[in-house]
Design the sequence.
C-alpha cells in the first residue's frame, strides 16, 4: 500500500462494535474483566495500552515502515524512554552537533548525571560522526536531519553503516522531514523518533511523541519501559495525532511549495544575509537531501543584517507569521531560536547565531505570507 493510503487506514479498521469509521476515543482508564484475568480485548489498564493509542501506534509503525510503533506524552518522553532502554549508565552516545536544544539538554542535564556519556558530532558529515564514536563503548548514534534550527543534512545511509560497524544502533529524529518526505528505517536506521507535536499532529493543538523501531524485540523492550515509567499520551491526544496523520501528505506538499516561494523572496532581499534551506543547490547538504528526501520541507532559517536586535525586530513585526515556538502546524510561525527554542543551549557548543530567524512555513495562501514577510523585513 502506498504512503497516503497507509496514513489514512493503517491501524484504523472500522470499530468492531459500532462500525465507526474513525477510531473512537476510548476515554477510559480501566477495562472490565470477565472473571479474574479474563481480558475481553486484551486491555486491562490504559497506561499499559489503550485502543485509541494502539491505533496510533500501529499507524506510526506503518508509515515509517517499522516493526513496532509506540506513542508517548511528548517527543522528549519518547527520546528519554528510548535512551534508557538501549543504554546503561557508563555507555556512550553520539548526539548531533546542532541537536534540538531540548534533546541536547536531555543528554547534558538529565542523562549525563544518570551516567551516560555523550559526544556532540562536530559537523554533519560522515567523518564528524566517525570521529565521535568511541569503539566498544558507543551504544547509540543519534541523528537529526534536517537539523533544528540550522537545517543541516546528515547522510543517513552512510552514518548507519559506520554506526553498525561500531556495534551501535542509529536513531534518527525525523521530526523536521516527517515520514512523508524521508524514511530513515529504509536507509538503515534502527529507530525513528518524532515530536508528533509537529508535522504529524499538524495543527498545533497537541503535545506528543512517537518511536518506531525496526526490530520487534527492541520494540518490546521499549514498550516495557513505556509502561513501567509511564510517559504515555491520553486517548484524546492520541486521536488528535492520528487525525493529523491522515492529511500529512497533502499538507507536506503545500508546506514544501510555500517554503520554496518564501526562500525565493528571502534570497532576493537585501537585509537577508544567509538563507538556510536544503533545497538550495548551494546548501552543503543539498545533494544528500535530494537523494534521501522526497522534497525539502517547510522549515527555513535565515540571518538578518544588523545582528540580534534586527532579527528580534523582524520577529516582532511579523503579523501573519505568528511569533511562537514549535513548528509543523498549518499556520506559519516565526521565532528567534537564540532567545526562544534554543535558549537552553546558550554558552554550549550548540549555541546558535544571534541574528538567526527560523520560519515554520504553513499552508496559507503563499501571497499573504510573502506580503507579511516583506513588511516584517522592513
Ligand atoms: C527536532 C525535535 N525533536 C524533538 C523535539 C521534542 O518534542 P516535544 O516538544 O514534543 O517534547 C522537538 C521539539 O521542538 C524537536 O523540534
Sequence:
Amino acid at each position: 500500500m502506498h504512503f497516503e493510503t497507509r496514513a489514512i487506514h493503517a491501524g484504523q479498521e472500522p470499530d468492531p462494535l459500532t462500525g465507526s469509521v474513525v477510531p473512537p476515543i476510548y476515554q477510559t482508564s480501566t477495562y472490565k474483566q470477565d472473571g479474574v484475568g479474563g481480558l475481553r480485548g486484551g486491555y486491562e489498564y490504559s497506561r499499559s495500552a489503550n485502543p485509541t493509542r494502539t491505533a496510533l501506534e500501529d499507524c506510526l509503525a506503518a508509515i515509517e515502515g517499522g516493526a513496532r510503533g509506540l506513542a508517548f506524552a511528548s517527543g522528549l518522553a519518547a527520546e528519554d524512554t528510548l535512551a534508557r532502554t538501549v543504554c546503561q549508565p557508563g555507555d556512550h552516545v553520539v548526539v548531533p552537533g546542532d541537536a534540538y536544544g531540548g534533546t541536547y539538554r536531555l543528554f547534558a542535564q538529565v542523562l549525563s548525571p544518570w551516567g551516560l556519556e555523550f559526544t556532540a558530532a562536530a559537523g554533519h558529515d560522515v567523518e564528524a560522526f566517525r570521529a565521535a564514536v568511541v569503539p566498544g563503548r558507543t551504544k547509540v548514534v543519534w541523528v537529526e536531519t534536517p537539523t533544528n534550527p540550522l537545517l543541516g543534512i546528515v547522510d543517513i545511509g552512510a552514518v548507519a553503516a559506520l554506526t553498525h560497524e561500531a556495534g551501535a544502533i542509529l536513531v534518527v529524529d525525523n521530526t523536521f522531514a516527517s515520514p512523508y518526505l524521508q524514511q530513515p528505517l529504509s536507509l538503515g536506521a534502527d529507530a525513528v523518533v518524532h515530536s508528533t507535536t509537529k508535522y504529524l499532529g499538524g495543527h498545533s493543538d497537541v503535545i506528543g511523541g512517537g518511536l518506531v523501531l525496526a526490530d520487534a524485540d527492541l520494540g518490546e523492550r521499549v514498550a516495557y519501559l513505556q509502561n513501567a515509567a509511564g510517559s504515555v499520551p491520553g486517548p484524546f491526544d492520541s486521536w488528535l495525532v492520528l487525525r493529523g496523520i491522515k492529511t500529512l501528505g497533502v499538507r507536506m506538499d503545500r508546506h514544501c511549495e510555500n517554503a520554496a516561494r518564501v526562500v525565493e523572496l528571502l534570497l532576493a532581499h537585501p537585509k537577508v544575509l544567509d538563507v538556510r534551506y536544503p533545497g538550495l543547490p548551494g546548501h552543503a547538504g543539498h545533494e544528500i537531501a535530494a537523494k534521501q528526501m522526497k522534497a525539502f520541507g517547510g522549515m527555513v532559517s535565515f540571518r538578518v543584517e544588523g545582528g540580534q536586535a534586527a532579527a528580534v525586530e523582524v520577529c516582532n513585526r511579523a503579523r501573519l507569521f505568528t511569533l511562537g515556538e514549535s513548528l509543523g502546524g498549518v499556520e506559519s510561525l516565526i521565532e528567534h531560536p537564540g532567545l526562544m527554542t534554543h535558549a537552553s543551549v546558550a554558552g554550549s557548543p550548540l549555541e546558535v547565531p544571534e541574528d538567526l530567524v527560523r520560519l515554520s512555513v504553513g499552508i496559507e495562501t503563499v501571497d499573504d505570507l510573502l506580503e507579511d514577510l516583506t513588511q516584517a523585513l522592513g
Observations:
- The chain has 13 helices and twelve strands.
- The chain has two domains: 3-246, 249-377.
